[in-house]
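Technical annex, item 7. During the second reporting period the consortium partners agreed on a shared format for inverse folding records so that results from different sites could be compared directly. Each record opens with the tokenized structure and is followed by the designed sequence. A conforming record, contributed by the partner at site C, is shown below for reference.
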């Protein structure tokens, strides 16, 4: 396979960053226009954003529109953010910590460019550290980045093959998201709206079920208010390095997803370690507003920046998990956090005091547990498939990019 070397600016129509509308002006926010921040580049493919802005917010700020099929790179951000590369599946506006690359499609396939840059994370981190006192990537530095390209036909064959794998991963991820949404919908209907099935199988509250006043508002008669610390234990089990368990530091816990399958090698686990067991509930307590609340799918080890909670009985597990997955709990944990620059949620006199509405009928908890268990089992099987697909992609991609493996001309991708 023959390659030609370019500087990045030679294969782009445009390269630019955006801006942020003033957060003090409410009319700039909660519109219908997607607005991307650098932290969201943790996703390889982006079709939706966490925040939306208005047309007025666009007109009165320096934010810029990045079009569908563009590549974006985080030029700055907390933790591992800087250097992350994503591919846009929809148009969206970007902030000042994102650089948008618009490829010249006569020279480079857009997905091929994305895949090339996505494998160069460490290099992008390095050049930003060496070129800026604040450790940020700049358009000036990126323009000079060298890239070796095969002919456009070969690029398209490679990107089509790898994107086919990524599409399957995206489809599977969407299925998991739907399953998690089903669990959250059932939780809301049964334990927030109190429409769990009564003895006749009818919705409790709307069928005249008796409600009584409590400190958390109306609840079904006989139900209780319990503090979280009375129904779970905050585990701090010491880890022995000879156990060689999968390592899951806080950054490996996904945001706003109840399940995960990823981990790091045991050798990377160094200090402040605590052990967790399968079906423990893990909560990232550093910057708890990032909403890292997950059920552990295996036995492993994490750091003290994660709470490891064990329900007193497995019957409570899914009910407690869904309670802790709510914005209500995350907001409570955030409000009781200590520290300003890097706030930490605290257990004692903090999260342990979170109040949970607790059913008096174990049969309701069992029914709920059984339904959610089924969705969790399905999701874990899909996560296992995703893990295998990611391993396949990550094995093939560098070999295809380097020319070590070539796709035969007669192979239909």
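Designed sequence (site C submission):
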């Amino acid at each position: 396979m023959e390659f030609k070397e370019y500087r990045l600016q030679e294969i782009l129509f445009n390269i630019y960053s955006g801006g942020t509308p003033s957060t003090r002006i409410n009319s700039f926010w909660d519109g219908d226009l997607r607005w991307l921040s650098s932290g969201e580049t943790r996703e390889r493919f982006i079709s939706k954003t966490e925040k939306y802005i208005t047309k007025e917010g666009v007109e009165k700020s320096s934010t810029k529109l990045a079009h569908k099929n563009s590549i974006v790179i985080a030029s700055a951000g907390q933790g591992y953010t800087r250097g992350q590369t994503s591919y846009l599946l929809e148009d969206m506006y970007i902030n000042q910590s994102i650089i948008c690359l618009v490829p010249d499609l006569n020279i480079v396939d857009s997905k091929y460019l994305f895949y090339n840059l996505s494998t160069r994370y460490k290099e992008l981190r390095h050049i930003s550290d060496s070129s800026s006192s604040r450790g940020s990537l700049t358009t000036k530095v990126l323009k000079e980045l060298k890239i070796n390209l095969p002919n456009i036909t070969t690029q398209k064959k490679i990107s089509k093959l790898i994107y086919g794998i990524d599409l399957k991963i995206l489809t599977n991820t969407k299925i998991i998201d739907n399953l998690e949404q089903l669990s959250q919908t059932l939780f809301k209907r049964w334990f927030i709206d109190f429409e769990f099935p009564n003895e006749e199988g009818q919705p409790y509250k709307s069928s005249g079920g008796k409600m009584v006043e409590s400190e958390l508002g109306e609840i079904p008669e006989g139900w209780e208010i319990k503090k979280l610390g009375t129904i779970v234990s905050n585990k701090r089990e010491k880890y022995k390095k000879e156990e060689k368990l999968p390592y899951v530091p806080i950054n490996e816990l996904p945001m706003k997803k109840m399940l995960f399958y990823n981990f790091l090698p045991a050798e990377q686990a160094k200090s402040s370690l605590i052990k967790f067991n399968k079906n423990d509930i893990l909560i990232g307590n550093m910057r708890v507003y990032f909403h890292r609340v997950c059920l552990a799918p295996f036995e492993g080890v994490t750091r003290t920046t994660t709470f490891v909670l064990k329900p007193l009985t497995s019957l409570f597990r899914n009910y407690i998990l869904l309670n802790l997955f709510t914005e209500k709990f995350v907001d409570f944990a955030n409000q009781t956090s200590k520290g300003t620059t890097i706030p930490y949620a605290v257990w004692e006199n903090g999260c342990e005091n979170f109040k949970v509405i607790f059913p008096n009928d174990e049969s309701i908890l069992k029914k709920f547990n059984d339904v959610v268990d089924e969705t969790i089992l399905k999701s874990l099987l899909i996560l296992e498939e995703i893990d295998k697909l990611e391993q396949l992609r990550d094995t093939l991609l560098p070999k295809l990019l380097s020319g070590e493996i070539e796709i035969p001309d007669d192979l239909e991708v």
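The chain has two domains: 4-149, 202-360. Residues 129 and 135 are 4 Å apart (CA to CA). All partners now use this format for quarterly exchanges.
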